[in-house]
Amino acid sequence: MRIDKFISEVGVASRKEAAKAAKRGGVLVDGIAVRDLSAHIDENRQTVTYLGRELTYNKYVYVMLNKPAGYVSATEDSRLPVVTELLSDELRKRELFPVGRLDRDTVGMMILTNNGPLAHDLLSPKHHVEKKYFFRASEPLPIGAEELFKSGVTLADGYECKEAGLSLDPDRKSGIITLTEGKYHQIKRMIASFDNAVIYLKRISFADIPLDADLAEGEWRYLSPEEEKLLLGGGKKNIL
Ligand code: URA
User: Fold this and answer.
1) Is 103 a catalytic residue?
2) pLDDT tens-digit profile of 169-209?
3) Are 151 and 118 in contact (CB under 8 A)?
4) 207 CA to middle of ligand 1, Å?
């Protein structure tokens, strides 16, 4: 792989920035300064140091994004902005895609990766990956809603949801819902089954990884090694 491609894909600098740094002797391959970044290296055997930092090339990248309202959970859309537009140019070259979907008006925790097999596994119904949402409804939920969630809410089309968690705030209009499946508009349809409506929805965790409170809507960061471990393990299996 070209040295400048390697540096930009690791995500520490653009090719242009890397070229400038190389002119100043800031790019080393196996300890030797290189000025021509069009040269190729074997990224599995050679060591690249950028401004004193040794770089490691990971085939797969994992990112947490705080999705704002108005964005589609996709890599392209003919009309609307998509979540991958919120990533840096460097990161977009790594062809990340969102793991699962959030509705356009839903905000919060979204994982993006270029690890296709993992994303496929995490989304498979077999895996029961736990997702938590904070919601606000227009009316209070009735006494007994918690038990109904536990035994499985029936949606208007007759679909019987899997066991889900419901923990309500004292006003019973808001709280936390825990799901292990991801049907289309699931929470909105679960709440609609009580003749009620969701007026705000935010995913607050995915596979036991909480949304970082320091990430403003529209911001992203790489997952930490501990978070990557949780994701690769699909989170805890004994849920709710
Ligand atoms: N349930 C919904 O209704 N919408 C989402 O975006 C996620 C879960």
Assistant:
1) yes
2) 999 999 999 999 999 999 999 999 999 999 999 999 999 99
3) no
4) 16
